Amino acid sequence: MAVPAAALTVRRRRRRYGRYVRAPLTLIAPNLVLFALFFAWPAAIGIAYSFTNYNGFSAASFVGLSNYTQLLGDPLFHSALVRTLLFTGMVVPLAYVLSLTIAMLLVSRYAKGKLVARVFFFIPWLISPIVNGLIWRWMFGENFGLVNFALQRLGLPTLAWQSNGTLSLIVMVMAEAWAGTAFSMLLFVAALKNVPQVYYEAAAIDGAPGWRRFWHITLPGIRWTSFIVVLLTTIGTMKEYALIIAFGNGGPGTENNLMVQYIYQTGFQETRIGYGSAASLVLMLLLMAVAMLQILVNRRREKA
Amino acid sequence: MTTLDVEVQRGPAAGTSTKGLPGRPRGRAVAGRSRLSFLGVKPGEGRKFISATTLLWLLAAAYGFPVLWFILSAFKPAGELFSYPLHLLPQHPTVKGFVEAWHSFDVALYFRNTFIVATAATVLTLVTSACSGYALAKYDTIWLKMFFVGMLATTMLPTEVMLAPSFLVVRDLRLYNNLAGVIVPTVYTATGTLMFRQFYKTVPDELLEAGRMDGGSELGLFLRVMVPIARPVFVTLAIFSFVWRWNDYIWPLLVINNPHWFTLQIGIESIVGAQNVNWSVLLGASVIGMAPLLVMYLVFQRFVMNTDLNSGLKG
To answer: What pTM was estimated for this model as a whole?
Structure first.
């Protein structure tokens, strides 16, 4: 992307602006301090404590990798990890397809009433994850919910949306995708408007059908945004907590406990700071691995 | 998805005219013209128009309905909430749920706390983001680059995942059980800084040079020239930040233990935590909690929809 021009400006700017130190330092000082206090420091002590048995009060003693081996042996941790991956694996594709479809409709010449419709798509973004969980819990209540009432009316069997772990997870997947659509949609709308029109015109002259135009022009044209959307959705979904709590407290039982809930319970409620930090680090490594993987895939596709 | 051609607002569709060529049954096209021409639909496009518009509105209904059902339910008396058959509209509309929530659960107090948190955090976020975004866009040193990389890392590794250590930091800074402890750690956001950085990248350097010729100090230039021209970014980030902070759950939960400082989200969740969920009160409290954001969005929505977030994230 215009590398030579960028390199030129950088070199020119260095000569011109390199002498300013005090002004930029003053300007970034507040954020620098906040970054150090609330990101770098917790990360540093988190890593350190993950090798100790610190509980917040008594002196910490070094326990080596025992927190990590204990984690690997904990079935609750296993299930939280698997559930989180499952949840993320379902939310990301669903949210991607929904937000891209809606974004395409919102820039399409054929759809009418776009200005009003987009207000509807944006409302879920305003809803807090707690209330989001409640909204879906209210619709999918087992004995009082609208969905079961509708099923009953249609002569179909009602379903155990709360007490069946799989169904419960599926409803939460819908809730998460529903809430996350607006933000991704905003990114896609901007990207779609930037795909050069001449490509479509040329394709139309060649008589390429709509799906081919979508596959060969639209998708490559929004590749960078797709990458960002998938990355941000993955990260956002993997750390979901409030929605799950409000929908059913990670239930039935502990079946739908996700990673952050596990970290909260062990590290904070049981004040096993060392153990909880170890779990945090595992989640962080997981997020980092996902990010790296996506960056690699993106690089490869850009080269191809 | 095959019917959705992405043809961004442009004039007469040169490309699509091929669709209406001879060989295609004309009946439908003519019918399309007669029925839909008043909406600016050209002959031969009727079917595309109908399928795209139908899909758009089906999706819009699907996105709006859960909230609509929730809000309408909040106006139903307790007895009507659970008795089948359910009705979309309340048969005997009432605001009892709201009144009860307001009185029995200190919603007024939670509301005040949340308002303080969201407002203070938003103001501070605007100030710090504008300053650092400007510095990152208009100055060039090695440590600024390092800070930029570190900042990008925080978008990938969110600090709220490090729950226990973050709690220790807040405790050691004597911010525990204190609204300041909810506010200060949320002030720094990478997104805000990136938005301002992106904006100031588009401001020509000549403007800065001209100010320097006039002998203005660097910070004076920023305050007098650069801050006023960034007004749209301020408005957009203010909306975003206010919504984020209003809806925060896990961070206030970690920092606040005293019900006197509960925010709305913790307060609502505490109603759920009770053994038998009192849905009437819960619905009322939830709707009260989301009302300010709905109103704010409807007033300012053009600032949200016109955000070019994409370029901001592009760095």
So the answer is: 0.85
